[in-house]
Amino acid sequence: MKIALRSLLPLLLCLLIAACGNSDDAPQGQAEAARLGVVGQAPGGTPFVANLTLSLEEFAHLASVSFAIAAKPGTFSKPMAATYSRAWLERSGAWRPGEKQLVVPVFGLYAGYANQLAISATFEDKSRHEAALTVVAPAYAGPGAVYNTPEVRTPRSAAAAPGIDYMLIKNNFTAPAVLDSDGNLRWIGDNVPSSAATHFSGDAFYVGSSTTPDLYRFDLTGAYTTIPLASTRYTNFHHDLTRGKQGLLAELDAVDAGVQKIESILVEIGAGGEILKEWDLAQIFRAAMRAGGDDPSNFVRDGVDWFHMNSAIYVPADDTLLISSRENFVVKLDYQTGRIKWLFGDTTKHWYVDYPSLRALALELTAGKAPIGQHTLSIASNGELLLFNNGLGNLNPAPGTTSGVSRDFSTPSRYVIDEQAGTAAEVWTYAAEPPVLSDICSSTYETTPGNYLVVYAAAGARTRARFLGIDSAFEVAFDVEYPSLNCATVFIAEPIAFTGLVFD
Fold this sequence. Notes:
The chain is mainly beta and 504 residues long. The chain is 8% helix and 45% strand. The strands form 8 sheets. A 6-stranded mixed β-sheet has the order 1-9-8-4-5-36.
């Protein structure tokens, strides 16, 4: 795909206007001495990226280079903007001292559009040089072209603020994508068949392979490197990748002594693939159940997807992990010891009905509805638990047991947990009218206090993906839809700070 894109119409430099950022009667200082100018450009790996070449006589006094891409007329997402420090530019090889040139990547372009760019260079003495230019980017026709044509049910407007401007789309058919809240595709990677397990950190996307124990690092130009995990017992990533205490929390499958461990192992990994810590939920639950006098053999079942871990987050406030077992419950673990602190889920299921050791750990629901088949755990700004409440019962119940409750609708759900009292109460939910069932995948996140991004990944009998920005009073800021098959178009969509980025 990269070769094909380079054969498209080149990015066209249409307009160049350079001016110092100081007043006319002020000394121009280092900005003037540097004699910075835009002298060329080249296409990046996709239409969303361009590489600008800047001439620069003096690099030593440069503090930073910034760019901003103006929003399209009639749109309301904040402009895509980023700042590169001198250290980052030098470390990345952007500075070419022999030619006295900087090559600066610009990402987040509108494909098939004449983008209005502002470039700014700031120097140590606070003097500044600014330039404006227009770059025409070619249209995008790659594997993520489904994102080019949203069905806009409610367009974003000035009337409602969703608290979000950009969304990271983790999907099941291509590399990660970034959409703005107006429904425009603003970035997408290449050459991986799935990006459900994705995390954005610093200046790169980290993507876990769905077929091998490899971690891919995509920089914002779209280039990527492959990082093998430092263990051969893991076979693949699945579901999600989130920030841990020291590294990244990865949900991994494994094989131990020829036995498959399916979706029941959580590992903290470093950016170089090193294994920092592991939590084997099969071992943890066997030990807890035996200590409580129960036989775990019909609950923990190696070689079977008995747990189905689909979300895991680190909670720094009390040094714990929150883990979603789609088949059973939400479980809270002590980070250091792996000890189970509590369980929260459907109390008609096997885990609660048949095992006193687990029932003793269950939170009592005092208001609202319990999580069933839940996805994408997160902690709201005030410390409450937020999740997408799918409503689908067990897909792999133990022999002789039931699948528990299944609902005909799905919602985001927010809970207050009182650990001392052992209770949980649903304090906010959004029930769409008419009701929407998205029984698998899907996500919800607080964007800013009182505002939410809600994504029904498998609506319309698993044929539609629907994105909503709503507030706590249920006012809809935007509502867009895309065709999908199961969770192909989106597995998770989460807010991403794709404006005002600073690369040090």
